Queue: 3 jobs
Job 1
Amino acid sequence: MIHVVFNEPDVAVIEQAIALDESMSGPVMLIRDDYAVGPLVNIYSPEGEAERKEWWRMIFSGSDRDGIVDEGKVNDGQVVLDIREALANDENQVVWIWAAQNKHDVCGYYWLISQLADLQGKIEILYLNNLPFINEKGNIFYPDWLSQIQPKEFLKAKKLARPVTTSEFEVDADEWNKICAAGQMVRLLEGGKKIIQKDVDYYDGDLVKYIGPEAQKANKVIQAFLTKNKETTGDAFLLWRLKGLAEQPAFEAQGILKGMKDFDIKKRTAAEAAE
């Protein structure tokens, strides 16, 4: 079988689970892009793909990940082609799509499943939403990410695998098309597989809560946000938004607006802002 996950740390934990159970044997394929942020209009067309790549170039510009878009490391379209080729070469092959209850996984699922409708019967889903697991201390918890689950716990979770239904292929593809056409930049998981959308500045209001009157490194602000905020997103997106805030009169930046450790940021006093 082929396993598909949406976060790099998930690859290792699934591989560890496979090592414990030969019946799960097969390659683990990774969908790398974060479809919970950024442009999605015409995402399956060359123009839509190019627009999204250009957006990511802007997000990473000046950071320590500048140029990563052109390295070819993120090539989700090729992953889809590889899945199709594997299924074409082996009529007994099946695909297990693993997803936890978070916006990143669910948006990745929507992006992927909308391209596989003709492979119905070979695509199965394991959506681990609102399910209890046992952590390393023996306590029950509800994971947000697959990588939070102990490898041995996947041996029980595998029993949840089920084929994606005809209705799901149709309904989920329609829902994803609506999401893509809406043109908004931030997507959140409201529950189940329901995605709601927000404007590009959605996280700004909470991000400024962690900017104080004393100058501190951008990475400290972002780390505080990621640690304390209920809704979070990738640090690259947050850094881009923080750079935008730094250019507003209410804030002052010290250093060069590049990487997370290249500049400090603080709130201006009323008098400083007036000046």
Job 2
Amino acid sequence: MQESAINIAVNLITQGDPDLYEIIGLSLRVSLSSVALSLIFGLTLGAALATGQFRGRAVLNIIINALMSMPPVVVGLLVYLALSRSGPMGWLGLLYTPTAMIIAQTFLITPLITALSRQVIEDLYLEYKEQFASLRLTQSQRIKALLWDARYSLSTVALAGLGRALSEVGAVIIVGGNIEHLTRVMTTAIALETSKGDLALALALGMILLGLALLINILLSSLNLSARRQAYA
């Protein structure tokens, strides 16, 4: 029976099953959108924490690190409460939409992007701090220079965020509702189809998810190799 399910799963992938690729497309759209937003907020905050000296900086670092370990279901619950009809943003009508899923994933991934980028930029800033001072660069000029010099390392940060987004299930199922043809992504579809006993579709989605995870790791290795070559050049 399992061998038959594997064969059907392979056929679903190779024959271009429309439901399968609809789920994959939505997963990529939600994950890439949330990572893009997280990079905007995370890199900005990470650079500020790495190069700035202001009151509350240490406390903010602690909060960011704590938010990294927040359970996804808690993030989903908080976003659900905010977007529900009785919540402060209920009038927007975003609950159980892809936009709600993007919001939840953005809140989930931003602390990770912030913490990792802060560490990368801070290490680089300590190396260039005296040179920046001698050149009398402004804060914005320093940040631009650091972001460019750390572009390979920051690309690995972005890919780490993408991997986190693609594997997320707890938050998106709470705010998205796992609605067919609307908010069903790969992870939530795998959970549902497995519980229903439809192993073929679950296996097909699992294969695609594993393939994407492998691709992300290959890209991470390539970027790390490029960064090392640049460092020794």
Job 3
Amino acid sequence: MVDINKTLTIKLTFIISILALAAAFFIEHALGHQPCNLCILERIPYLMAIIIIVLNYKYIHLEKYFILLLILIFLAATILSLYHLGIEQGFIEESLVCDLKKGSDLVTKEDILKQLQEKNISCKDVTFKIMGLSLTSYNILISLLITISSARIYLNYDKN
């Protein structure tokens, strides 16, 4: 049963990661909702999960370490999303991560003027909600579930 749960969890994590990234890009590019810097950072764990799971099928003898890596990645993703939710709710002030501009190494005055004309999205502004919850809230739930299910598999890995 552990093997079925392990296989199912890995496959679900792979599918969820693809769907999460596809949804993020759809919301950004098709619906026109610009992400803040933290929203963009919250995509990285899903991309990393896809790469790790593909590597897992190639190097199956390292599976236990790949599962541990997934745990650490999605634990960090949960913490990052909680931090972002704290900013959205006003419990935490925006940090430098929220203020970083794309191309922060602006040199010419034309670059600076162009940057000032662009609309910068604040990390506390929620531009897209599903059933009243921000995408950050859903990211917390998804990341936490993947962390817990991966940890359960990791802890029971040698019992099989």
